[in-house]
Amino acid sequence: MTTYRSRTRNQGRFRNLAGYDRWLTFATLSLLAFGTVLVYAATKNWFASQHLDPQYYLKRHIINIVIGLALAYGTTLIDYRLLRAYTPIVWGLGVLGLIAVLTPGVGSTVNGAKAWIGLPGGFQIQPAELAKISIILGIAMVLAERDGASADPTDRDVLRSLAVAAVPIMLIMLQPDLGTTLIISAAIVIMIAVSGAPTRWIVGLLLLAILGGFVAIKAGVVSEYQIKRLQSFVDPTADPQQSGYQLRQARITIGSGGILGRGLFHGPQTNGRFVPEQQTDFIFTVAGEETGFLGSGLMLLFFGLFFWRAFLIAQRTNDLFGRLVCVGVIAWFAFQTFENIGMAMGLMPMTGVPLPFISYGGSSMFATLVGFGLLQNVHLRSR
Amino acid sequence: MSQRSRLNLIVVQMLVLSLVLAMLGRLFYLQVAAGLKYQNAALSIQSRDIVTPAVRGAIVDDTGLPMAMDRPGMVITVDRSVLGKMPDKGQAVLERVASLMGIAYSDLYTRTRLCGEIAFGKRTGCWNGTLYQPIPVTKEATQVQALKILENPDIYPGISASPVPIRSYPSLAGENAAHVLGYVGSITTADLANTSKQYYLNETVGKTGLEAQYDQYLQGTPGIKTVIVDRTENITRTATTTAPVAGNNIVTNINAKLQAATEQALASSVLSARAQGNKADSGAAIVMDVHTGRILAMASYPTYDPNIWQKGLTTAQATALFSDADGVPALSRAIDGTYAPASAFKVLSVAAASHAGYDLNANYNCPYSIKFGNQTFHNDDTKVSGSMSLQTAIAVSCDTIWYQIGYDQWVKDGGLHPKSNPNDFFFKNAAAFGVGQPTGIDLPSEASGRLPDRAWKLAYYKENKNFYCNYTSRAKPADLTPFLIAIAKEDCTDGYIVRAGDAINFAIGQGDVLMTPLQMTDVYAAVANGGILFKPEVARAIVKPDGTVLQEIQPQENGLIPASTSTLNFLHGALRAVATSGTAAGVFGNYPIQVSGKTGTGQVQGRNANGTAKDPTSWFASYAPSNKPEYAVVMMVSQGGYGASTSAVGVKEIYNALFGVTGNTVDPKKAIFPNGAPPSTLPKIDLRNATVKTP
Predict the structure, then answer these.
(1) Which parts of B230-360 fold into alpha helices (H)?
(2) I need a labelling partner for A150 at 20 to 30 A (CA). Which of A206, A347, B53, B186 fits?
(3) Set of chain B residues whose Cβ sits within 8 Å of the Cβ of A331
(4) Is residue B432 a contact partner of residue B559, using CB atoms and an 8 Å limit?
């Protein structure tokens, strides 16, 4: 009776909004608001001092969020089980984007990586961000759609899923984008584990990851620029001018925020721009310095709330495809968050990944909010 | 959902939870636990201190005449952060500045580079500060140069000229006083580590002399402007500004005119000793107020110009200061040089003999020579011999009487098998006179001399036993004479024993005993004032720039010399007899001022670098006027020959200046202290007049 009443009351254009998990939405909107303020704080004073529009980044960030929310809403309109049918197309588009970015004349190089495609009007897209969704959907589909009658995926299913993931991962490694590779790889292992695949696969994949990393560094597949970043994580004085300097500055900037922070727009380290990329990869330093332990700790709690609600959705659905999509999105967000914040605090080596929901950047924002949409989609259809 | 799948999902949940907790934990550590540390680190990243040096306090003489003071200089600075933004990195501007200053571009280039920016070996003149403050390239710019820079900022961007204080030693009364005043220099890492006071880089600090001793008062507090910069070193705002506070002035007991006269007297004594065929490598002269221990003048030869540090010390100049060939001008012989006191020591021997029970008014036999065992000791200064009063023996400087007394006392104390509790009248008496201990003068690095008593003998033996016991293999071939080998053998077995020769030599201030000229002055001042050993003081007061007295330094006693009134009376008579009828009669016989004193001619072991035997140390230790003593005056010339012919003559020149003596007449108006004594009140300090006279 209750269910029926609520459905009739919300019939209308945005009727499925009412079926969203409210806490997940609340956490997401809170993080988006947090991010908006931080992007503004990271850029306002510096741009003003350079006689540029202090709201340049703020405006673009808000536009990104609006587009991203629209994409998220759009994602929830179609039943994700129907979406499953389009997965091969989504996967194919993702791979095409990754090929395009590597094509001379199309992709542009930033910080030693070919990760961007320039679009008319000064816009840029980062295919790797959108490819994350393709990979998650692709693997979920393969693992959920098995040929045998057994409840758990067989070795063959696992091999097929790895084949699905291998192509886009190779393309991302060619950019090279170490951070995204690591995050996607971790998400794949988690998805395989949750699919119920034999334990030997999980152990084997973890060993492979360690071996692969070792060989990559030894064989020179990983560029010198990446090795330097890793070295400066182990020993911040190894490369004091570049990576080591940035990591040290980031830690000092966060630490100097103390309990209460220096106040929004009043962080001397942020305003002096001692930390690079502080509206994107190092945005957590702005939170740390200007909002202190109270503010940045609250932000971490919002992430915690988000993950808790997302796991609930994964648990409640009876559909393996839906659950794997949820787990994939959670693992992606969790590792990317940990990599980004961990890097700023000196827990993780330096890789350029944005902080989900917070960092400035269109592609990342769109992909993140589509991920959020996928979670809500599964939630909507599992009641 | 299979069991494994469900279990794995829980494991993944735990994993994500632990990631969030790890981040929260790390955040707590960074911001709460270690927050203060990072706040300080951030502050040091963002803030730059710009130091404006304070005017250093002046050092003035007893009349208020400045002997060391800051004079205005003009500094030209180069701001690298401005030049760095130019397409040619400021080369054109620096070339213009170099031609304005009249120096080579390469010199100016070096002066504006951090030492780390320049290849090792070419760093002479590089800037050892930071890039955050304008780099001074000269402090001696002319007004014309400064005006050209200030009036044409478009031609000289990033270049500035501003007045700065420069330390100068104006020598207004012709005095040098380098060893008393000391000098200042740039702060070093050692200075930064060694002091409780907070110094800033580029500050000047006292390196030696009064400049070092009273640095904390002279220094003042530099003005600090703290600016906040961004990553590109652009100043975003000024955080705090404190104005510099000038340092305090030091009033000394030195009288600049007397100092100049003392230096001249010392220099002419050294030169005349050389003319008489002595090496006369160095010397010292001191004038002390006997009632207070205040140092009225103190000279050391050779000396140096303390201004050279401010003009920019060349390598040659720096080497010369400490080179043996030039006589190590940096060393103050007055407080740092130690010498055998020779007969000037007999004042102490008289007191020791009196304690040992000798009648100071009896007659004693003074043979020309005297034999102990197989060694013969003879008189040096006198040809007179026979029975004589002890007073005459002092006057003519008979040594043999003292040999006998020293020997007899040594025998009484057990000789080669000393008693467990020997009297040691001579050693204990000398210790009470301050031999072997620094006087505590307010100047850095004072030497303590040496009291070669039984404890010293034992310590020295322990240190050198190995050498003596392996003498034939370790000594230089030239020192392998049968006599020296025999002595080494003796020293190896029982070198810690005080021998007869040690006791005999000690009685006349020879052998291993060493004293500084300052210690000698203190002893003679004590004899003159009735027995008080003072702690010598160069500084008289610390006065604030506005004239209020921060601290007046009161005379301080180190103790009493162990001499009874009768011993002192005997000494007064004997020391006067030295000047009237004794060894110094040729110098002071007809002198209009009554002077009491004692000559000393110290034999020195060893040889000069060129192989010649060392000439004796010439001493004259004295006080005057004899009936109502005011001043103790001591001169010592190392390798200066006889005490009378070299040092007594120099001391007389000092008395000439002190009392206003010309020939045989005294003109009290020409005396350094017209009232007959050093001023009892503090002078007014007027630095303005002095500034005009400086070059």
Answers:
(1) 256-275, 308-311, 315-321, 333-336, 346-355
(2) A206
(3) 12, 16
(4) yes
Residue among A179, A328, A166 nearest B12 (CA): A328
User: How far are the Cα atoms of B123, B434, B443 from residue B448, in angstroms, in the given order?
Assistant: 40, 9, 13
Contact B329, B304 (CB under 8 A): yes
Set of chain B residues whose Cβ sits within 8 Å of the Cβ of A268 = 42, 46, 228
pLDDT tier for residue B693 given thresholds of 50, 70 and 90: very low
pLDDT classification of B29: cutoffs 50, 70, 90? very high
Quick check: helix, strand or coil at residue B299?
strand
Q: Are A360 and A347 in contact (CB under 8 A)?
A: no
CB-neighbour burial class of residue B614 (10 A; exposed 0-12, middle 13-18, buried 19+) = middle
Residue B614 per-residue DSSP state = P
- B296 contacts B287 by C-beta, under 8 angstroms: yes
B interface mutation test: which of A182, A269, A296 has the most B CBs within 10 A?
A269
Kindly list the domain boundaries of chain A, sorted by start residue. Answer: 20-381
Contact B57, B68 (CB under 8 A): no
pLDDT tens track for B115-138: 777 776 666 667 766 666 678 888
Q: Determine how many CB atoms are found less than 10 A away from the CB of residue B224.
A: 15
**What is the phi-psi region of residue B376: left when phi exceeds 0, alpha when psi lies from -120 to 50, beta otherwise?**
beta
Task: List beta partners, residue B638.
Answer: B282
Phi then psi for residue B551, to 5 deg, are -160, 130
**Each residue's pLDDT expressed in tens, for chain A with a length of 383 residues:** 334 444 444 455 666 788 899 999 999 999 999 999 999 999 998 888 778 889 999 999 999 999 999 999 999 998 988 888 889 999 999 999 999 888 887 777 776 677 788 777 667 788 899 899 999 999 999 998 765 556 678 888 889 899 999 999 999 888 888 888 889 999 999 999 999 888 888 888 888 878 877 776 665 555 566 666 666 555 555 554 556 778 888 999 999 999 999 999 998 888 888 888 899 999 999 999 999 999 999 999 999 999 999 999 999 998 899 999 999 999 999 999 999 999 999 888 888 899 999 999 999 999 999 999 999 999 998 86
Q: Residue B612, exposed/middle/buried by CB under 10 A (0-12, 13-18, 19+)?
A: exposed
Q: What DSSP designation does A354 have?
A: P
- Cβ separation of A256 and B28 shorter than 8 Å? no
CB–CB contact A293 B41 (8 Å) = no
- What one-letter code names the amino acid at B573? G
Q: How many CB pairs under 8 A join A and B?
A: 141
What whole-number distance in Å separates Cα of residue A77 and Cα of residue A96?
A: 25
pLDDT score at B1: 59
Q: Are B31 and A307 in contact (CB < 8 Å)?
A: no
pLDDT of residue B202: 62
How many residues belong to chain B? 695
pLDDT in tens, B289-327: 999 999 999 999 999 988 876 655 555 666 777 777 778
Q: Do A271 and B16 touch (CB under 8 A)?
A: no
Q: Which residues contact B60 (CB under 8 A, 6 or more apart)?
A: B66, B67, B249, B250, B251, B252, B683, B685
Which helix H or strand E contains A45, and what residues bound it? helix A22-49
DSSP per-residue codes, B61-89:
-TTS-EEEEEEEEEEEEE-HHHHTTSTTT
- Across the interface, whether the CB atoms of A273 and B231 are under 8 A apart is answered yes
Give dist(CA A94, CA A86) in Å, integer: 12
pTM above 0.90, yes or no: no
Q: What Å distances lie between residue B532 and A56, B351, B522, B563, B638, CA to CA?
A: 85, 14, 9, 10, 28
Q: Exposed, middle or buried: residue B589 (CB in 10 Å: 0-12, 13-18, 19+)? A: exposed
